[in-house]
Design goal:
Order of helices and strands: HEHEHHEHEHEHHEHEEHH
Shape: globular
CATH class of the largest domain: Alpha Beta
CATH superfamily of the largest domain: Phosphoenolpyruvate-binding domains
Bound molecules: 3-methyl-2-oxobutanoic acid
Strand order of the largest sheet: 1-2-3-4-5-6-7-8
Number of domains: 2
Distance between the termini: 51 Å
Largest sheet: 8 strands, parallel, barrel
Helix content: 40-55%
Number of strands: 8
CATH topology of the largest domain: TIM Barrel
Length: 271
């Protein structure tokens, strides 16, 4: 936690795991949201490629481009003081080869000021993780449900339910730790599997739909504030509904403007 005004660093992830303190992470795509999350003392901010579905209206995250990620990451950087900032590498920015992966990871650091990047995938992306790390850029892993591969997975479904796929996810987690990831996101896996992975790894697990045994939790901020209503996964807890409040405000603006009640004297210049 960084409410004491200290920047959360990569060392704090491991320190928190060892101390048994939970890590907090939320997504942001713009400067004002980053300021609020930072002000609340959340440890880390992820500029997720979920921006594609949540803000840009795409059907899936696979459509998101590097330019869009850099644009949003730069805005989030400007609103972030103490939180650790992670940029999410979009689909096909790292899959084709090590060189391209390093170049694109470098853009997140150099152009957007991110502290680290996140990559989806298990053992198959370990060479990319190592290449990016050797350029001095920390990498956050992401396994379980990996939305960039949703077509191959057959939809947004819980992963690791049977023994074979659970064993594969466990192995992927170990591979990512050996490749040098500083932490790994576990998305949509049964909590018992997340508990076993968390117990096995020395690096922290950050769960999203992976139960309470993970070393930390990450959620999409727009989900927990009710600002994205296309679907609400079972694992999301909605703490408020700003969507309703916005609708109420804009409806009243329309009504008052139409009726002539706005602008009144208090909202006009008399001279
Ligand atoms: O893109 C994103 O927001 C993510 C989180 C849900 C982990 O990858």
């Amino acid at each position: 936690m960084n409410m004491d005004g200290k920047k959360f660093t990569i060392l704090d992830f491991k320190r928190k795991k060892e101390a048994g303190d939970k890590i907090t992470m939320l997504t942001a795509y713009d400067c004002p949201m980053a300021e609020l999350i930072d002000q609340a003392g959340v440890d880390a901010i992820l500029v997720g490629d979920s921006v594609g579905m949540v803000l840009l209206g795409y059907e899936s995250t696979a459509r998101v481009t590097m330019e869009e990620m850099i644009h949003h990451s730069r805005a989030v950087r400007r609103g972030t003081r103490n939180a650790f900032l992670v940029g999410d590498m979009p689909f096909m920015s790292y899959q084709a080869g090590d060189e391209e992966a390093v170049r694109n990871a470098g853009r997140f650091v150099k152009e957007a000021g991110c502290d680290a990047v996140k990559l989806e995938g298990g053992r198959e992306i370990c060479p990319r993780v190592e290449a990016i790390l050797s350029a001095g850029i920390p990498v956050l892993g992401h396994i379980g449900l990996t939305p960039q591969s949703v077509t191959r997975l057959g939809g947004y479904r819980v992963q690791g339910r049977d023994a074979e796929s659970a064993a594969r996810i466990m192995k992927d987690a170990v591979f990512l730790e050996s490749a040098g990831c500083f932490a790994v996101v576990l998305e949509c896996v049964p909590r018992e599997l997340a508990r076993r992975i968390t117990g096995k790894l020395r690096i922290p697990t950050i769960g999203i739909g992976a139960g309470s045994h993970c070393d930390g939790q990450v959620l999409v901020t727009h989900d927990i504030i009710g600002y994205f209503d296309k679907f609400l996964p079972k694992f999301v807890k909605q703490y408020t509904n700003v969507g309703e409040k916005i609708l109420e405000a804009v409806t009243r603006f329309k009504e008052e403007t139409t009726s002539g009640a706005f602008p009144d004297d208090g909202h006009s210049f008399t001279s």
